[in-house]
Amino acid sequence: MGRIPHRPGGPWTGILLAASVLGSCLQPAPAQTPTPVTIVLTPPSPVVGGGVSLAPQPPPENLVLCSWFRSATTTDENSRILSYSPATSPPQTLGPAHTGRETAGPGCALDIAGLTLSDTGNYTVQIMNPAFLSIPVTLRVYEKLAKPTVTLNQTQVPENGTLTLMCNTSPRADTVLWLQNGSYLTPNTRLELSSENRTLTVLNFTWGDTGTYQCEVGNPVSTNRSEPSTVTLACSPPDAPHPGAHSSLSTGAVAGIVIGSLAGAALVGVGAYFLYSRCRNKTPRENEAPVLVYENLPPTAWAGPVAQPGSPPDLSPMYQTLQPRQPDVYEELKK
Fold this sequence. Notes:
CATH class of the domain at 38-139: Mainly Beta
Radius of gyration: 57 Å
Number of helices: 4
Largest sheet: 6 strands, mixed
Oligomer: single chain
CATH architecture of the domain at 38-139: Sandwich
Helix content: 10-25%
Mean pLDDT: 78
Distance between the termini: 183 Å
């Protein structure tokens, strides 16, 4: 047979093109990445006495069997809570770790009622559809926190002393915050906090550190604050500056000023009393000459010449003699 001539644009061109397209369609499709399955808690922060649902999301398709374990693995049969198979009747089979409060729901969800703090822990679900898949999850049950209390090493702190406060609360409190005069405190070089913030230490105590202190505790379901505890500066002088103003004088210097002021006031008082006593004793009766009192005495006989009979009368005035009168005893007593 002769050679088949090939012409551009002939029927072989179409055949080759069709084969190429068909070959591309017959190539195997790339494998699809399975959607990861996680466990969703509803509600996300379960409370003591309430309930919770642990559900695989998305729900497993073609479910054959699933089992829930109260542990981080599925190797211990004693930790199995229950198994669920939608094709059997009844679909639920209880395990050794069942407490009477667990049930299985659609999509292999585990429902727990009447939660207690002991329900906190690790859980694992094993799903067969028909491949085996194990998914761990951690459940934490929260309690509503009671009002905390604050313990102080002292309520009157000397200047430059150390104040230590401890917040007494449940060990399940997630956060512990400290407040002074209603404002939250931030740690610095003088404010030290323990690892869990349950102990606050105030170094080099000053007037600015006085006031009320509180601790506030919280978790996802509750928040509570202690009653205010008042802290003052010990041995504060009467004329000390207002809290918040730092005095540059030391305690010894302030005490010396107070004692010196009191001693000066005492000396002034003694001097004033001494002067008053001298002025009181130095009365006019002692400083001035006594007041003389005069009295009239009858005229004495005149020792002059005797008047002759028939001579005119003597018209010279009749003077009386005045002399000081001596006070008697009665008048002396009246003084």
